[in-house]
Design goal:
Layout lengths: L1 H7 L1 H27 L2 H13 L1 H42 L11 H31 L1 H16 L3 E6 L4 E4 L1 H7 L26 H18 L8 E6 L5 E10 L5 E10 L1 H37 L5 H31 L8 E4 H12 L5 E8 L4 E4 L1 H18 L4 E9 L2 E9 L5 H9 L10 H7 L3 E6 L5 E9 L44 E8 L10 E10 L2 E11 L8 H7 L3 H4 L5 H11 L4 E4 L2 H10 L1 H4 L7 E3 H8 L8 H8 L9 H21 L5 H9 L9
Parallel strand pairs: 7-9, 13-16, 16-17
Antiparallel strand pairs: 1-2, 1-5, 3-4, 4-5, 6-8, 9-10, 10-12, 11-12, 13-14, 14-15
Length: about 725
């Protein structure tokens, strides 16, 4: 504490010591003389000193002034430039392109020139080493890019976690499923996923721990050579989706379990389809039972009383007709509903009906059988079918028609009827008998295979009907197939531009950060770097936050794709002065969510991290004043790059974001936008960590304590 105070008041302390030394020197000269003088002269000298007291004080002040001017010149010429020179010399390690501005006395300027020449030589060597490292790591980078591309484009949702449940790898499918709630954009209340975050925020902790226990049990039972131990579970996410998870172990070099791989499959539609089918079967069974009972009663009455009068017979016949029509309607509705639910069959593919017809024409056509498409083809239809098996089945049927029924020409038509598509095969001649048609439909398509046309249609939720066509000499075989509905928002979500940081396997070796966080090294912590834009500079006077931008630092990497950016609709109006600074207008804020919605989302984004901001006291004052209104309290530690800059460079006059960025070689892009300023602050903070280490500031506690000793730490908003 005393050493820090002396360092901050070096000029005053030095001046006081010099002045005191001059007084002591004068006293040391006068005191022996006074002792040797006779009593009368000593009395005269004492009286002279007392009578000329004001003069002596003036002379002392002149001495002090002279010492101050001389000392100031000495400080300006040598001491202050040398102190700044020492800071700039350390800065060259973080920013090889930095050059020291000449200042001070001639000797100091010569030293600065020599250091700049040395810095230029160092930069040339540094650039050469970096080029060699880049060349040596090119193959490794290609492998990483392949992994990133694989993870980004893989349709299966994949997560890799360390043994503590922190995410080391994820792909975009997992992000969409877990973070977006299946809608392609973050949902209020949904916990975000990202590198270093806990998987327990999105999947129930107990399920994962139970699956891990199963893996460990399999490993104990099977030993080190256990073949592919795996466990699984079904979980319900916060937005209601149901996922099936498979867990596989990840081992270190000594075959110790230190992580796990999760593959997730969204089975929500499958479960809903199964529930709909169960409900449909139950409803159809109940309705059909009552209808059949009425039919049976009417038939038994007619059989029991063959001599009943015509009126009674007509009444019973009407009942039979009505109940028959009702049963037909029930079956028709069941077929429609079953067809609507077939979208959940994942072994089927979506394709245009016109493409299916083109495939059939290429596959079935032969010299002995002419095939063509009729005019009745709806080119807008989409089907969900097993095109390979269906083509095989219809080729088999066409072969039977050609060889056994003498058909030489087939026409294909396709049209829509409600939720079904009618795929028609027509030919000149009589339709086959029911027994022959049944034999064709039930015959296996390949020797030894169980698949037939009838089983294929049942699997695809379709039906077949054979009848006469539009004229008596034309036969028609109709396949009724379910129409494919438009894809969900998740299925058609466009890919993001660029590629996020999907993986960081170094996190396998990072311990948890919740216990003893003050003693954790700065290089090991995870951070949320943030900035706000406001309507003014006085939160106590009613100014409000209108924009929050943030991004995360994990394992020393600034993850620009894992960002948070949101405009906020204020309750009050914007001033012309604030608009001139940040460029946010009233039109841009119309329709944006209020702070009561945005702040809890930002709180979840920043969970389990240290907050970092430039001039953080200003931003934190706004957040603190919103605690009661939003119910959101930020309790995590905060680091301020403004204070840390003064710790690293106490002799620099400027500590603005632009000045620090210039010293550290950080490009300033997007200034006075919340996310742009957060990116610059993050880059600055990463370059500060090694400079703090040069001053033996390596832990979070070291950084917080050092920051509190600076002059700017006393500023309050």
């Amino acid at each position: 504490m005393i050493r820090t105070w002396i360092a901050g008041h070096r000029f005053g302390v030095t001046l006081a010591l010099l002045f005191l030394a001059q007084l002591l020197l004068a006293g040391a000269i006068l005191l022996p003389l006074a002792i040797d003088l006779p009593d009368a002269q000593r009395t005269w000298l004492r009286a002279l000193l007392l009578q000329r007291g004001a003069l002596w004080i003036a002379l002392a002040l002149l001495l002090l002034l002279g010492l101050g001017i001389g000392l100031k010149a000495l400080f300006d010429a040598y001491l202050t430039p040398v102190a700044r020179l020492a800071e700039d010399a350390v800065l060259l390690a973080a920013n090889p392109g930095h050059r020291i501005a000449p200042q001070g006395a001639r000797d100091v300027r010569v030293l600065v020139d020599k250091l700049n020449l040395l810095a230029a030589s160092h930069q040339a060597v540094h650039d050469d080493v970096q080029a060699r490292i880049a060349l040596a790591n090119r193959a490794l980078a290609e492998e990483k890019n392949r992994l990133a591309a694989l993870m980004a484009e893989l349709a299966l949702s994949v997560l890799v976690c360390n043994i503590e449940g922190r995410i080391l790898l994820y792909n975009d499918s997992a992000r969409q499923l877990l973070e977006a709630g299946g809608a392609g954009a973050p949902v209020a209340g949904a916990a975000a996923i990202g590198l270093g975050r806990s998987v327990f925020g999105v999947i129930e902790r107990g399920l994962i721990l139970h699956a891990l226990e199963q893996l460990q049990h399999q490993l104990r039972e099977g030993g080190a050579g256990a073949a592919r131990p795996v466990s699984g579970f079904v979980a319900t996410l916060s937005q209601g989706q149901i996922v099936r998870a498979h867990m596989a172990p990840v081992f270190d070099n000594v075959h110790t379990l230190n992580g796990f791989v999760l593959t997730l499959e969204d089975i929500t539609r499958n479960v809903e389809a199964d529930n709909r089918r169960d409900a449909l079967l139950q409803s159809l069974t109940q309705d059909a039972r009552a209808t059949l009972a009425n039919l049976l009663a009417a038939v038994e009455t007619i059989q029991a009383f063959p001599d009943m009068n015509a009126g009674k017979r007509a009444q019973l016949t009407g009942i039979i007709d009505d109940e028959s029509q009702r049963l037909v309607g029930q079956i028709g509705r069941a077929v429609d509903q079953r067809g609507a639910g077939m979208d959940s069959h994942q072994e089927l593919e979506e394709m245009r009906g016109a493409d299916l017809l083109a495939l059939l024409l290429r596959r079935i056509g032969s010299p002995s059988l002419s095939v063509a498409a009729s005019d009745a083809v709806d080119a807008t239809l989409w089907l969900r079918v097993d095109s390979y098996a269906l083509t095989q089945a219809l080729a088999y049927l066409a072969q039977r028609l050609a060889t056994e029924a003498g058909v030489t020409e087939l026409r294909f038509g396709l049209c829509r009827a409600g939720r079904l598509a009618y795929l028609d095969l027509t030919w000149h001649g009589a339709p086959p008998t029911a027994d022959r048609l049944r034999a064709w439909e039930n015959a296996p398509l390949q020797a030894g295979a169980a698949l037939s046309l009838s089983t294929l249609m049942a699997r695809q939720g379709g039906e077949t009907v054979c009848s006469s066509g539009a004229s008596p000499d034309v036969a028609r075989y109709r396949l009724m197939l379910p129409v494919s509905e438009p894809r969900s928002a998740l299925d058609r979500l466009p890919a993001r531009q660029g590629r996020p940081e999907f993986y960081d396997f170094d996190l396998f070796h990072q311990p948890g950060q919740n216990a003893g966080i003050d003693q954790c090294r700065l290089s090991q912590l995870s951070y949320t770097v943030f900035d706000t834009e406001t309507t003014g500079l006085e939160p106590a006077a009613g100014d409000e936050i209108i924009s929050i931008g943030a991004l995360r630092i994990v394992n020393g990497r600034l993850l620009q794709r894992e960002s948070f950016e949101q405009l906020i609709r204020p309750r009050g109006a914007l001033s012309a002065g604030s608009i001139a600074v940040h460029g946010i207008t009233h039109a841009m804020l119309n329709g944006q969510p209020p702070i009561e919605t945005v702040l809890p989302q930002f709180h979840r984004f920043a969970a389990d991290t240290v907050l970092v901001a430039h001039n953080a006291a200003f931003d934190m004052k706004f957040l603190q004043m919103l605690e009661e209104r939003t119910g959101t309290v930020f309790t995590q530690p905060v680091l301020d790059t403004l204070l840390l800059s003064q710790v690293i460079h106490p002799h620099q006059a400027e500590h603005s974001l632009e000045a620090i960025a210039s010293r550290l070689g950080v490009a300033v892009i997007g200034r006075h936008t919340a996310l742009g300023d957060a990116i610059v602050t993050g880059e600055i903070f990463l370059r500060m960590i090694p400079l703090l280490a040069e001053k033996s500031i390596v832990t979070l506690k070291d950084a917080r304590d050092a920051a509190q000793q600076t002059l700017y730490a006393r500023v309050r908003y």
